[in-house]
Every structure is written in structure tokens, then in C-alpha cells.
Amino acid sequence: MMVDELDDINIVAAIDFGTTYSGYAFSLTHEELKFYGPQIWNSGHGVMSSQKTPTSLLLNPDQTFNSFGFEAEDKFAELAVDENHHEFYLFQRFKMELHWKNIKKDSNIHDVSGKTLPAMEVFSLSIKYLKDHCLKTICDRGFLRSPKDVKFVLTVPAIWNDRSKHFMRAAAVQAGIDDSQLTLALEPEAASIYCQRESLENMREAQLILAFTRLKMVGH
């Protein structure tokens, strides 16, 4: 992301759309080394808390959105107890199908019971949930003036080909993220940048501790 791209951006939000778990975090552009989040997610029964939520999407029988993450898994389990789950769609671990099955924009993918729906719909609804949840968190913390203030970064695996990356970008745009506000970042590069920033922050903290120690010694 170039510096001039951030002129009108106040917040950078990163969405980690994972194979098994997903989550997000954000930072203010004038506080580059300070991160907010990731959101703490709780399972419906309160037995587990996590910084990420399962990449599980539950759709109603009419193919409209029902829930995502822990909530989706809990609801599907409750439906299954009374054998009311058969008409619902539960999608899990579908992200890497973009790579292994070379999915196109018009491809279908299977849910846990074998029913199929357009892959684009499944991915875009999942990303939309994470995007909306992230914006709500930003708004609740008093940082959001307008959705246009946010630059979204969506992580993708380094092994993905251009077709898979284009698919993910199209799904994010369909999810309501403006293409001009979207950047795809390779997961290894994102991790490397984080480690570099973390090292810089630790170095600054060490310098502050050293300076404080010297002041104490002078004071004595």
C-alpha cells in the first residue's frame, strides 16, 4: 500500500479469512504500531473464547444468510438434534477449494451434506459478515466517521494463482467492499511486516526502559 493511498484513509482493517478460522483487526493510520482487536469470539454455549471464529457459514433453506462462525455451528447442531437441519446449508473448510479445485466465478461448491451452491455466493456472504462485524466494532469504539474512511486488507495464501486471487477480490467486492478500498496481501508478507513492526515496537520499549533506568540511577 503506497503512502499516497492513505491520504483519505483513517483506518486500515485486516480480514484474515482462513481455512479453519477467521478474524480481523484494525489500526488507525496515525497509530501504525497500535492494533485494535482481534475481536474475541465466544461459542454459543460459553465454553470457549477465541481470537478467531470458525470459517463456517450457515444458510437458510431459501439460501439466505443465517449465521457465521461459532453461531453457525451451534445453530446447525441444535437443528440436527430434532432432524430439522436437512434443508439448511452448512459450509466449512471451503477456502482452499479455490486452489485445489481451480474454482471459477461460476463454479459450485458442496456443503457438509453434499448440497451445492455458487462458490461466489458462499465466499461473498462470508466476507460480508466479517466486514460488517469489523465495521460495527470500529463504530462501537467511536473511530468510524464513514465506511469510506476504511482501507480493507484481505490476506490470501502465497500458493494461490492469479485466478484464485481475482476470485477472492471479486467476492470481496460483491460483499460490499469498494475495489478502490481493497488490497490483497500475501499471508507470508503480512506476517513478515508484522514481525518487523513488532520488533521495532519492542526496541522502542527497551529504549524507554533503559532511559528510565538511567534516570533512576542519576536520581540516586
Automatic annotation (TrEMBL):
SUPFAM superfamilies in alphabetical order: Actin-like ATPase domain
InterPro entries for this protein: ATPase_NBD (IPR043129)
Protein known as: Heat shock 70 kDa protein 12A-like isoform X2
Organism: Crassostrea virginica (Eastern oyster)
Gene: LOC111116119
